[in-house]
Amino acid sequence: MLRRRWLIVVGGFALAVALAAAAWVLVPATYERTATQVLMPGKGSLPKGGGNPYLYIGGLSQAADIVVRALGSENILNQVDEEFPGSTVEVERDSATPGPVILITVTAPSDSDAEAVLAVMMENTHKVLNQLQDAESISPDFRISALPVAVDDESQTKRRTALVLSGGLLLVVASASLVLAAMREGLVGRRRDSDFGGVGSAPDLVATVDSASAESVSTSGPPPRDSGGAISNEVVEPNGVGVQQEDASTGAVDVPKRAIDRSS
């Protein structure tokens, strides 16, 4: 089928490759940056005489969950979307550590927007902490703060959307070309059958003729023999005169008498 309809298949594959390449070029890339912040206890929450504050961050996991919920609210996300259209923000607890670490992931249509959105979201962490603790009138010595742990200096280019779209177009158009070639072959086959009067295709007719010929040969019987039991080689000419051919068993030729009389 593919050999007979190669134009459809090759044309379909060429169109699929062209559309996939166009989608890869036209769909813009996105830029992603991440930052992590850890919550730290206030000085008043540490033992007298100071100490290492990182040894006392285990009790701040619940506070981190509250901050994550506040940063992911629609009010903050809508403000970011209005200022930086096309940007998306995801805020969650960092699953790689059991501590109160907040992970902020920013995706933007440009590298500069990704950098700016990430800075805004990190600043929002401080604002949310201050608002929550102001509402509870917590003194400055006991206030929780947020310190940056890791902040991306460069964006990672993401082409996932272009890759998915290009792959989808390539698969759909290539499959459609194969289906179209199969449908075309089926239509031509049915048309060929109808041209033979609906009795079957040309190979079927040839097989029927061959079987009929074999049957006629089998029913025609053995060749005639003469009175001596030898196979007669007489050939009847249109004027009714029999001409004897060479006998295969003896090699002698029997010349008809009427033929001799005519020559004399």
Any overview of this molecule?
The structure is a single chain. The protein has seven helices and seven strands; from the N terminus they run αβααββαββααββα. The chain is an alpha+beta fold and 264 residues long. The protein folds into three domains: 1-28 and 159-205; 30-158, Alpha-Beta Plaits (2-Layer Sandwich); 224-264, no CATH class. Strands 1, 2, 3, 4 and 5 form a five-stranded antiparallel beta sheet that branches. Strand 6 (235-236) and strand 7 form a beta hairpin.
Extract low-pLDDT stretches: 198-202, 231-264
Count of DSSP-assigned helices: 7
The name of the CATH topology of the largest domain is Alpha-Beta Plaits
Name the structural class.
alpha+beta
Beta percentage is 5-15%
Largest sheet: 5 strands, antiparallel
Q: Name the helix and strand elements from N-terminus to C-terminus, one letter apiece.
A: HEHHEEHEEHHEEH
Calculate Rg over CA atoms: 47 Å
Keywords:
264 residues; alpha+beta; Alpha-Beta Plaits; 3 domains; 5-stranded antiparallel sheet; two-stranded antiparallel sheet; 15% strand
The gist of it:
Helix content is 48%, strand content 15%. The protein contains seven helices and seven strands. It is rod-shaped.
